[in-house]
Amino acid sequence: MKKYISRFHYLTQDLPDRSHIQQAQTACEAGANWIQYRCFSKGDDELLEEVNQIAAICDDWGATLIITDHLHLLDKADIQGVHIEDMQADFKVIRQKIGQDKTLGASANTIGDIIRIAESNSVDYIGCGPFALTLTKPNDYPLLGMDGYKAITDSMVQKGIAIPLLAVGGITIDDVEDLLKTGIYGVAASSAINLAPDPAKAFKEIYRKVL
User: Fold this and answer.
1) Is 135 annotated as belonging to a binding site?
2) What Enzyme Commission number(s) does the record list for this chain (predicted)?
3) CATH top class, domain 8-210
């Protein structure tokens, strides 16, 4: 089942001064059509309370809501899908668990990751990164840069892999236009928006460049 995948994925994050709910509200008011709720600092009860409020906001604005990793919460709120950050996850098993209607996203860093994910025939899109240094999700994966994405998208074409590929990790507003020239499908961003002096303005600037 082919699903709609936005070219611009907005991710919430833990911030000391703005809740995930406030972040989602700001993004939706600025035009977001895809919200990824990414929170690892709360227990299930708090997560559900928050995600239900975010789901209501997304419903009001017609935005798709994806939750990061918390697979067990998927059927307990109005969530359209899940993004799995574990690159070694068994995506066939996850697809069986969530059914065909829910959107399933995966994380990748190399063309090898992408090939393995594609072979599962289970995933709707891939978030590939990091593009540059990111403090949102600290990791030891090699930074891809523009050349890395160009090499990956070229390999995907050669191998006939047509899964939408989004660049993620350390992306700034100034990177977006050049990134899109590498052949990627779209971008995902969090800190470039959430840590900006005016998050709504930052969102709109990226939105205009992507869509």
Assistant:
1) yes
2) 2.5.1.3
3) alpha beta
